Amino acid sequence: MSLKRAYRAALLAGAMAIGLVAAAEAKPFRFSVSGDANTLDPHSQNAGQVTLILRQIYEPLILRGKKLEMIPGLATSWQSVEPNRWRFQLRRGVKFHDGSDFNADDVVFSIKRALLPTSNYSIYVDTVADAVRVDDHTVDIVTRIPDPILPDKLSSVFMMDKEWSEKNNALRPQNTREREEMFTVRNTNGTGPYRLTSRESDVRTELARVDSWWGWENKGLNDGNVTQITFRPVGSDATRVAALLSGEVDFVLDPPLQDVARLKQSLRVLEGPEVRTIFFAMDMHRDELLYSDVKGKNPLKDIRVRKALYHAIDSNAIHTRVMRGQSIPTGTFFPPQVNGYIKSEDVRLAYDVERAKKLLAEAGYPNGFEITLDCPNNRYINDEQICQAVVAMWTRIGVRAKLNAMPLATFFPKIQKDDSSLYLLGWGVPTYDALYSFQSLLQSRDGQPGNGIWNYGRYSYAEMDRLINIMKTELDSAKRTAAINAALKIYREDVPHIPLHHQMIPWAMRQTVNTVHMANNQLEVKWVKVD
Amino acid sequence: MASRSALGRLLDSDVFHSFRGNPVVVVSAAITAIFVLAAVFAPFVTPYNPYDLAGLDLNDAFTPPAWTAEGSARFLLGTDDQGRDVLSTIVFGARVSLLVGFCAVLFAMTVGITLGLVSGYVGGAVESVIMRVADVQLTFPAILIALLIDGLARTALPRDLHSEIALYVVIFAIGIANWPQFARTVRGSTLVEKNKEYVQAARVIGLHPGLIMMRHVLPNVLGPVLVIATLSLGFAILAEATLSFLGVGVPPTRPSLGTLIRVGNDFLFSGEWWMTIFPGAALIILVLAVNLLGDWLRDALNPKLR
Amino acid sequence: MIAFVIRRLLQSVLVMLTVAFISFALFRYVGDPVLIMLGQDFTQAQYDTLVSELGLDQPFYLQFAKFIVAALQGEFGISYRLARPVAQLIMERLPATLELSLVAAILALCIGVPMGVYTGLHRESWLSRFFLTISLIGVSLPTFLIGILLILIFAVQFGVLPSFGRGDVVKFGTWSSGFLTTSGLKALVLPAVTLSLFQLTLIMRLVRSEMLEVLRTDYIKFARARGLTNRAVHFGHALKNTLVPVITITGLQIGGIIAFAIVTETVFQWPGMGLLFIQSVNNADVPVMAAYLLLVGFFFVAINLVVDLLYYVVDPRLRVDRGAASGH
Known about the structure:
The complex is a heterotrimer. Chain A is α+β, with helices and mostly antiparallel strands. Chain A is 31% helix and 21% strand. Chain A folds into 2 domains: 29-267 and 510-530, Periplasmic binding protein-like II (D-Maltodextrin-Binding Protein, domain 2, 3-Layer(aba) Sandwich), CATH 3.40.190; 274-504, Dipeptide-binding Protein, domain 3 (Roll). In chain A, a hairpin with a 3-residue loop joins strand 8 and strand 9 (204-209). Chain B has helices at residues 2-12, 14-20, 23-40, 42-45, 86-122, 124-139, 142-156, 159-176, 179-194, 197-204, 209-245, 257-265, 274-301. The chains are: A alpha+beta, B mainly alpha, C mainly alpha. The interface between A and C is large, with 44 and 45 residues.
């Protein structure tokens, strides 16, 4: 073998090896949901489809693990140094995608940016009074009142580069009042595992792996191998499913429920609960209902009527037909993942049409009555279909409910004006604690911050209020749990809502895709492994 | 009197013979008649009233057609996502589709004939204005005009009121998009008739122009109008279906064939094909039959083509 | 000629103003953009500030005048939904719609006209009858149903063509073209076929009836009497005379194609203006909707103007007619 030939062979082998390595390493991942992010500004829109993209690019101080537990992110540790002061130690050696260093100034800048009026993330920093740089890698966050769950909230606030934002005139969160497009709408500079390479709104967004990301070395934090992400939103349900079936996308976050069974035949479907409960709420305040033929009294104030409406609902039929098994029927108003849940209070009133009729007759409505059900038609999974089905079920006991289904843009303003006698609502619990649900949904609306802010039926019950106040202040966890249990018992017995089910959120993907199902319905591509 | 003689001429003429000699047309006419009768008498001919909520059972939902393994003899064409009998929803849906179609065409016809007669007979500035408006409107696709009108109504009317009268809005939207065809044709014929001696004579003896138009001009334009009306009916039914498919048509509480297809479309991949295929087939058959009739009518009434 | 052109131009301006007024009035009160922009929690004060900053509290006519002035400068404001200049968004989407419409129009013409001529010349042949039946089915099938069925067959069942989107595109400045890549061309097939089917059948039927009319004229009879061959009569005389209506029809059909593109783009998730329009309707994105209507209105008026002028050039008889009509 001549030297020349040997050299050539070696060259060839080398080229092949390189080719093989490259082929093994390129792992494209194409995914789709029904709608696109309307901005990529990290603090502008607090909506699921926005954070779905942002969380691949930007990072908060505290990350969420596979079970949504808090894990160190850009902060390596945090502690409450004074009642009103939290101290965060920052990770060293982290770089933004443009190469600049991440340090305390960036944290102070980002927290303050999230506090600005144009931010839609202010609920996560509502108690923050100030953010103070201690040294290059230490930041103090000062709160107006003691806030034990500040770290939980900060896990939703993304960190930006101060210098980059200043240079590009993006000091405030983008808002649409400006007559010009802000730089941050289409440009990003995060610290996360992927960086934006191209973006066409509504059409296609491309992200590429950042090899220098600090987290790749930490196997507990990631076990994905995706090098290239292509995100293409598809609005039509049928087309999105077709794209997945024909292999044009690898992953669909929101497959229509009716297609889950078919998708399961050839694809992988991860099923899991979302921390969200669907229920009917009723006007229990007015002396005469707004949209009803009952004059001079409010039938919903009568517990027998509330129970009758409850007994008339065949929750199993809704579970199997409308939700295709993708729901967990419940007798209470938050799921087991939430602190305070107890199985013994999660009991539904039985489906019993005769009993319902009897209760109605006892209450003085042997022939039923007329009422209007307000229902969103694009907010929760199959919301309008649920309402249609329940309206039909109520008809059987003589309650003639008129269905008023509308888009969320109309629905929420309507119920927020207390302009409803009966409405369907879905309630998620981002804090994973029962207080959030009790305080917002069932406490008397007395003007105190947070009390009954979503209690549009204006339910008011002194004992319930007392128990909720215990939940707020009681430090002894046993006593606090007892208060929650007692409140749940009242919920079951007094029927302030007619609960229906917890939502499930199936994710559909090709067999080659492995990932972790997240109850917050957010995909973390750093955990996606493509075979 | 004049119109009866026109009708008489129609039936006596070889139009009628052409009808009997063409099996496709006879079948189309029969299908159209069946649809119309079924729609009119929907509550009496359907096995169920699909919009009687008390009769619905969610547990019947998604039953496949009767001849399939899991089908039930109770529901010939299966049931939809709420447990309604698909056959019954189709008949009730055809009722809405036909109602919208007929009323829209009637509306377009009334407006078109009136404006066509007036512009043809009166002429002058009136004619110029009417015909320019018609020209301009013809350049805009009817479906876009209907979308516009419907959107306009949605904004102008309060929500509750809108769902009450949505049906009339759709009729108006589709009708208004269609009048120029009628106006143009009627104007053309009117121009021809106007200069004929008998019309001139009627003018000379001082008959009221309205009377002249009604008695002498109108009967002579009825043939082409009938053709356009039939073809427009097919178009109107399709336009309604398209609007409903885009979600801006008739309210979902009174679903038309288009609404049924839109709802069923979500279940096409999940195996509940009957929810969209059957209403779709019904829509196609109905429109096809109407169009075949119109097509034949045009050829039959146009002696030049025979 | 010049007077005619000027008159048509003036009419076009008037039409555009009407369209502008409708598009402005139509969407002035759709939904509540302010609520959508503010998200879930906000105060009444924030709401009011935004209303006044957007100028939504000014009188109607003032808002309209501002709208016209801005529109003339190509300034349609900023999309409520995407927070980007509307003109930019539309420019991004325009190529997709125009390429799709162009292919659909060419398909419709190249298949529709020959079919129309053939069925006109050979009225009784079985192929003509077959074409006619097919065409009737074509006009009787709703566009959206065709699209869904095509996806079901070619994308899901056989997996030969993509079910959505535009494939890879090549950029030329602000223009993006799908004509130059295999995936772009493949992605075009199903939407273009869906969109052209209805227009194709319409064109075929109209050409056929025009042919039938023309073939009956004395002019053709004379030509035949002069002993010209069938071929010369059909293509030299008859077809030439059907040209005028065909031009009109084609012009009108392009308008129809752009309008029906809304439906096709929705079904195929084709990133064109129609999809943008429907997405904007769903989000009460007023500036985009208004701009879309104006632009489409402009297309129609322009097409109509061109058709009118072509008409004038092709058919000398019309010059007399038009003159006479305006003399009234």
